[in-house]
Specification:
Layout: H1 3-19, E1 26-30, E2 42-48, E3 66-72, E4 75-81, H2 92-104, E5 109-118, E6 128-136, H3 164-177, E7 181-188, H4 197-206, E8 210-212, H5 216-224, E9 228-238, H6 250-259, H7 261-274
Parallel strand pairs: 1-4, 1-5, 5-9, 6-7, 7-8
Antiparallel strand pairs: 2-3, 3-4, 5-8, 6-9
Helix pairs in contact: 1-2, 2-5, 3-7
This protein binds hypoxanthine (HPA).
Length: 279
């Protein structure tokens, strides 16, 4: 079952391995406007998504569409500068395909980042949030379809999608750097439109602290493959309807991400430094 997928994965994995000389420890996915981290990667090997067999290409402004492999804080990382979104028209299988490649590359730790709207009234634009759990309101699931038994089980447990151990490391890093970290439940909708105020009120009642258009498919697939997942969100704006006269725009999302880029890169770097790599 899923022979085609396994053949494709072998091809993609071999292609990436042919470009790099070390076996990577951690995969990092950068969200909207969070690309500056990529500039810190030492001895980078940069591979355009276009070149990678079976990879899609990134169509969103602020998402570069490059895989950057290199060293950060003594760890060998593979960084997706630009991710794929459901609203671009890609299926969840295509969106989550890179996670399967990361697993094949021997990576056990996935660090997901994203830009989110803050639903929790305590959150401010520019805050960071450790994702403690998620609500999948995308109306679909990346594991639908025949199960690939080589990757995971048909009915995977999702009790701790976001590793408590990694969340503790993130919390410690925030304390050490004096960067305030919120914690909360992330809710994913498909986008591409931002939510209505009524939808935000509904999501708050459902227990969401923040909302975005990504991350959950990748986290589900990584957890299914028994990878350890960490999710850090950048609250780029108060969610729809929470501020008088507010209109949401992708430009404002990018502007806030730009304002906090230094703290974001310091935080992510220290977390990566402190993650123990399983081999
Ligand atoms: N809603 C959905 N996705 C987002 C938002 C938002 O308010 N901000 C950044 N990404």
């Amino acid at each position: 079952m899923k022979n085609d997928e396994n053949l494709a994965l072998d091809e993609t994995t071999k292609f990436i391995q042919s470009k790099i000389s070390m076996s990577p420890d951690i995969a990092v996915v950068l969200g909207s406007g969070l690309a500056p981290l990529a500039e810190l990667i030492e001895e980078p090997t940069v591979i355009d998504y276009d070149e990678i067999p079976h990879f899609a290409t990134s169509t969103v402004e602020g998402h570069a569409g490059k895989l950057i492999c290199g060293k950060l804080q003594g760890k060998y990382i593979v960084c997706m500068n630009g991710r794929f979104h459901f609203y671009e028209g890609y299926g969840l299988d295509i969106i989550t395909y890179p996670m399967k490649v990361f697993k094949q590359l021997g990576i056990q730790t996935l660090f997901l980042t994203n830009a989110v709207g803050g639903i929790n009234t305590q959150f401010k634009a520019g805050d960071f949030m450790i994702i403690s759990d998620h609500l999948n309101l995308m109306g679909s699931n990346p594991l639908i379809g025949p199960n690939n038994d080589l990757l995971g089980t048909r009915f995977p447990d999702m009790t701790e999608v976001y590793s408590q151990k990694l969340r503790n490391i993130a919390e410690e890093a925030g304390k050490k750097l004096g960067i305030k970290l919120q914690k909360g439940v992330f809710c994913a909708l498909t986008g591409p439109c931002y939510e209505t105020p009524a939808e935000i009120n509904m999501l708050r009642l459902l227990g969401a602290d923040a909302v975005g258009m990504s991350t959950v498919p990748e986290a589900i697939v990584a957890n299914y493959m028994k990878m350890e997942v960490l999710g850090i969100s950048c609250v780029t704006n108060a969610a729809a309807g929470m501020e008088d006269g507010q209109v949401l725009s992708h430009d404002d999302v990018k502007k806030t991400a730009e304002l906090v880029k230094n703290d974001f890169t310091r935080l992510v770097s220290l977390i990566i430094k402190n993650i123990e790599v399983k081999k």
